[in-house]
Amino acid sequence: MVSGGTKRRASAANSASPPWLVLAVCAHALACAAESGPAEATADGATSRTGLAVDGGALLDAAAASDAGPGDGGGADAAPVPHPVGCASTTTPAHHVFTCSGLSVEVEVPPACSVGGCGLVLDVHGLTMDGNQEDRSTGLRALAEARKVIVVQPTAPTGLLGPSWNPSTDDDKVWAAVRDIREAFVVDRRRVHVTGFSQGGAMTFRLLCAHADEIASAAPIAAADAKSLDSNMPPFRLDCPFDASRSPARPLSILHMHGTKDGLVPIAKGRQQRDAALAWLGPHVESTVSESATHKHRRFASAAKGVVYETLEHDGAITPPALPLPVAIAGHCFPGGTDLGPSPGHALYFSCAAPMSFVWGELLLDFFAANPMP
User: Fold this and answer.
1) Which domains can be identified in the chain, with CATH numbers?
2) Which of 126, 149, 131, 120 is nearest to 211 (CA)?
3) Is the pTM of this model over 0.85?
4) I want to staple 129 with a disulfide (CB 3.0 to 4.6 A). Which of 125, 161, 235, 238 is the partner?
5) DSSP string for 242-271
6) pLDDT tens across 118-148, in order?
7) Strand pairing of 295-302 and 217-221?
8) For 344-370, how does the pLDDT look when each residue is reduced to its tens digit (9 = 90+)?
């Protein structure tokens, strides 16, 4: 079926308009434009006033597009616009809380993303946390407008120790929510990224193995495939060992952050995970991105695969509380966050005490911006 807008444009293009008619239309357009303000440069170097084209064919085409009804979207070539999909029930630029497969999902949509084309960052919290506490450590919502990204922060179902992710059920629910939000807000598919902390970092690794074809790049934090970490904590399970049994289906860039003083997921476990990933990466060139007294950021670049695996180790730790915490968190934390002490509903907190030499949220988005889908 040919849309009304398309028919009108074809008719306009194929008819031989008398020269006097084209000149009259052009003169009228120029007169209206002169009343509306100074000329503006267009993308190709021509000038227009208030968006009016000044050649007869373009005017006829613009008129046909403006006459097109809502059913044809202005013609076959019209770009898609944000629209509700699945659990993403509204697409206004605002902070939303969607319910997706029973999960509460915080979604920050800045004004810059009101017409589509933005990136998307899935930011997954750790054990006992929720989407809001995660944001106090990453600060991604505040950065969303400037970076032109939609931030998605789901909250896990409540378990014995508080919110806790169940890999067998929650991974699929979270990714289904990402797909709904991605389609609803017409996200740039080359800029869908995943990050997560602790349990959320383990989910990040699992999503890499399950959905590498939909993920541009990823940044797991304080996560490793450990059989048991603490008698009070459930084991972390990555199910993405980066070996012949299971690894990402395509090469993609990864930034892996871990604290050297981590009391829950020892740095030795993080380095084991690094070594497995580097074996998967293959031949690479190592370089130092940045270094200070409290951190070291290294890059391992594969020319053959066209991707990088970066490691960021820091010496930060949380401010010790007056009373001992039920678990030893120490360096299991985010540099640069504001989750610096207990808050209502949260006895545990996960931002490293200041000063730190970098702010995680800013560095993370720099990495994602540099590593879109090829």
Assistant:
1) 4-67 (no CATH), 95-370 (3.40.50.1820)
2) 120
3) no
4) 125
5) SSSSS--SS--EEEEEEETTBSSS-HHHHH
6) 999 999 999 999 999 999 999 999 999 999 9
7) unpaired
8) 999 899 999 999 999 999 999 999 999
